Amino acid sequence: MEKFIGKILIIIGVLLILIGYVIYKGMKLPIGRLPGDIFIKRENFVFYFPIVSTILISIILTLILSLLFRR
After folding, report:
1. Are 32 and 50 in contact, with CB atoms under 8 Å apart?
2. b/e burial code for range 47-63 (CB count within 10 A of at least 16 → b)
3. What SS3 class is residue 3?
4. What is the average pLDDT across 25-50?
5. Which residues contact 38 (CB under 8 A, 6 or more apart)?
6. What are the sequence ranges of the domains in the chain?
7. Dihedral-angle region of residue 32 (phi above 0 means left; psi in -120 to 50 means alpha; beta otherwise)
C-alpha cells in the first residue's frame, strides 16, 4: 500500500511541475485546437466540442499510466 501511495504522490508532483512550467513560460499547447475538433460559431451561438483533443489526451494518459503501473 505504501508503494502505491508513493507512486501516486510522485505522479501528482511531476504533473504539477510540468503544469507550473507551462504556465510560467506562457506556452500555448495545441490541445483544444486540433483538426477534427468541432467548432461552430453563429450570430448568438458558439458550440465547441474538442473530440480529437479528448481522444489524444486519453491515449497519452493511458500510455503513461500503463507504463507506471506495470507489474
Report:
1. yes
2. eeebebbeeeeeeeeee
3. helix
4. 83
5. 47, 48, 49, 50, 51
6. 1-30, 32-71
7. left
Q: List the grid coordinates of 38.
A: 468541432
- How far from the centroid of its chain's Cα atoms is residue 11's Cα? 13
| Residue 71 to residue 35: CA distance in whole angstroms | 36
- Looking at residue 33, what is its pLDDT? 76
Q: Give the model confidence (pLDDT) of 45-69 as tens digits.
A: 999 888 988 898 899 888 888 887 7
Q: Which residue has the higher pLDDT, 60 or 1?
A: 60
Which grid cell is 24? Answer: 510560467
